[in-house]
Amino acid sequence: MDIIDRRLNPGGKSLANRQRFLRRARAYVRRAVRDSAVERGIGDLEAGGEVSIPVDGIGEPSLRRGGGGGRRDHVLPGNREFIEGDTIERPDGEGGGGSGAGRDGGGDDAFRFVLTREEFLELFLDDLELPDLAKRRVTTLETQGLRRAGYSVTGSPANLAIGRTMRNSLARRLAQRRPSAEEVAAIEAEIATLTAAGGDPERLAELAAALDIAERRRRRVPYIDPLDLRYRRFETYPRPVAQAVMFCLMDVSGSMTEHMKDLAKRFFMLLHVFLTRRYRHVEIVFIRHTHEAREVDEETFFRSAETGGTLVSSAFVEMRRIVEERFSPADWNIYAAQASDGDNDYGDGATTSALLREAILPVCQHFAYLEVGAEPGSGGGFLERETTLWRTYQALKGEGAEMAMRRVRHRRDIFPVFRDLFQKRDAAEVDA
Amino acid sequence: MTNLLFQGRDWDFDTLRRLHDATEAIAKTELGLDMYPTRIEVITAEQMLDAYASVGMPLFYRHWSFGKHFAQHESTYRQGLMGLAYEIVINSDPCLCYVMEENTATMQALVIAHAACGHNHFFKANYLFQQWTDAGAILDYLDFARAYIARCEEAYGQTAVERLLDAAHALQSQGVHRYPRKRRPDLRSEERRARERRDYQEQIYNDLWRTIPVKKGRARESLDEHRRALLELPQENILYFLEKTAPRLQPWQREILRIVRNVAQYFYPQRQTKLMNEGCATYCHYRIMTRLHETGQIDDGSFLEFLQSHTNVIRQPGFDDQNFGGWNPYALGFAMMGDIERICTAPTDEDRTWFPAIAGSGDPMAVLRDAWANYRDESFVAQFLSPHLMRQWRMFHLVDDPEDPELRVDAIHDERGFARMRRRLARQYDVAWTEPDIQVVDVDLEGDRRLILHHHVANDLLLAESDTGQVLQHLADLWGYDVVLKEISAAGGTVLKEHARSATHAFA
Known about the structure:
The complex is a heterodimer.
Chain A: E1 2-5, H1 15-24, H2 26-39, E2 49-54, E3 72-76, E4 87-88, E5 110-115, H3 117-124, E6 142-152, H4 162-175, H5 181-197, H6 201-220, E7 231-240, E8 243-251, H7 258-278, E9 281-289, E10 293-296, H8 298-303, H9 312-326, E11 333-340, H10 349-363, E12 366-372, H11 388-398, E13 404-408, H12 414-422
Parallel strand pairs in A: 8-9, 8-11, 11-12, 12-13
Antiparallel strand pairs in A: 2-5, 6-7, 9-10
Helix pairs in contact in A: 5-6, 9-10, 10-11
Chain B: H1 13-29, E1 38-43, H2 45-53, H3 64-78, E2 87-90, E3 95-100, H4 105-125, H5 127-132, H6 138-156, H7 158-170, H8 187-203, H9 208-211, H10 223-230, H11 238-245, H12 251-272, H13 274-294, H14 300-313, H15 329-345, H16 349-354, H17 364-374, H18 377-384, H19 387-392, E4 396-400, E5 407-412, H20 418-428, H21 431-434, E6 437-443, E7 451-457, H22 465-479, E8 483-489, E9 495-501
Parallel strand pairs in B: 1-3, 7-8
Antiparallel strand pairs in B: 2-3, 4-5, 6-7, 8-9
């Protein structure tokens, strides 16, 4: 008998099968993920979780008897009062009083299982893509990087590959039979002892000749030859900028209700999740504004309320300052998302659009404006009325500025709007 | 001086070894079991879930359906809806027993007695396993299957292989030989037979026979019959039929069909012996654990722990209990084997009438070993279910006939009912009876090459409509031409229903 401890074997033996299953059920799972994403809070979005998909997509059919009709026999335990010939009311639903007919899972119309966080996000953000970056004029997504690319025979001394050079040198010295220092020393030592002892002159002459040959050979065959030299070679390659910064701009003036802030927060968080999956490093900058703008931390951004007028341009001024100070467009991919209820000071429209056109849009990879509205039913014909800011931006867009604008008034619209903004752009862009 | 094998709940590999040696000694000497050598493998819960997903086998080819089962099991397990088995045992030589690391020392003893002794003996002794499975080769075969299918995926694309496996899996339960086929004689034995026949003819030669007028030669069998004979029709092993005769399949596709049906065949005995297999293992572990306790090798606490889990395993709720889920094979098997022991050692007059051959024989183990070796569930119930047990379990037979407005109790545990009830229960365990009888009967070779199948309907139980359609579609794609399945009533021979499908994406 052997005992084998398998506990340390690599786990995840079923992983490959699981992935095949997910791929097969992809369309169903994707829909289920979308649906469940609408229901869950944004905080749980990253948690993964249970989804259920219709069974027919992943059924394994077999030739088996159907549920209805036909004569069935059941031998059952636990008789208490029946005697032969008794009749029993047919129970509802199930064909017989017994269980033989039911197959496991036969009655379920949904297949439930748990997705990991990774799988969940993968499926959720599956067909989303960052907006077409090639059209941006200011910055490419790439910088030049250097990477090792083998060895060359020329190069600057700083790049001398000592190990490789010495290896070549050793090989050459062996091949050309250059006497080593030890060999020379051995001959010299023998000469010395022989001379001291007054030994055989013939042998001495022999040794002297050998020494002479060895030394001449050592001079002729150099220790390091230019042939041995090797230099580390580098080549340049285009390196994508793997970091992004995301600017969250939000109006926190009195007219923004908690509901609106909640909508904005959801949108920002989605954007963050999305960017973290596309970039190795994502920074977030929160700028909130009333009639003046300030960079704040996340907590303050979403929680505390302020009073004051509304000057959207102040946020752009602040953003421009931060970009100049910390986030050079050459090194950073800059994304900006603005959330507002659409109120803006009447005198500020021109400034705002100028700032946006001149300073913000040129440095941004993508600029999204999200107009949040009051909860439906709370009065105000929101959809009918165009807000000040919306009109300003609409005009800007009319001039050909590349920005995205959407309106959201209910929590359940957030996901569709987000998906809409980042959908792979095959079809022509249709705006709200 | 104590001879306890372990104390407390902790165990190490030394404990496992001692437990195995002690249980094996009892199994061999006292119960007279004959077992494959054992290999015990300690695994984690995670690995147990993995094993569940690949039908318990340690290695298996890849397919999405295993991933689906894994997802399902994992989900229910994580929600705490399902406990995991304490062990999985594999019919191979050496016999693989997977035991969970979380088990307590007592549970390990139970598991080893149950799987490494009980199941192991059953696998080695039972005629079905001997006939249909090759315990020494199964792991190598699965290894081959896995590598072969992986190579096919590389060569022909994952999608093509997956589609083929889908189709083959759909026909899996129609991919078994239910009866051993006649072995094709080889040349040498054929020659020997011919020689013997000739010698015999020479011995009995009598010239008189020449003078007897012969009848006119029997009419040559019709062309139809000839064709059917060539195609080995009717054939109930549909996968086998396709593998050998489907006109458009590639060699690798035939090989994959073969793999699927070989695996199905390997599991076929297990489906026929669920009751006996579990009953045998449960009976063995009960005997062994009791003996270990009697000889002082496990202490009272452990024995109580064992008894608790044993009684859980053999619980059989009544039909009106909300936990009722059909017969518990552990319970019924254990009860029947315990009952056989009783009949052999302390028979009543009733037992002497019902079981004259074994009543009072005094050697229950011999009877049990014989039963384990030579019966399957259906025949075991038909032979050994005693009136005593039917009475004790208060069994009754219920008939659900759609013609009647109500269910009817056809038999209860009385003199009139015993035999009838036993026959009915045995039939519930007859796989050939519980599964639809579907056969390939003919191919229209002169027309459109349509494949014709018959379902011999028993008790008016027709096939499930939507599943049948899907399976037939797979079958049509494999066959490459049209397929029609007729459901024929056993009584009148009339066609009750007809399903037809044409190949839409034939394999080629």
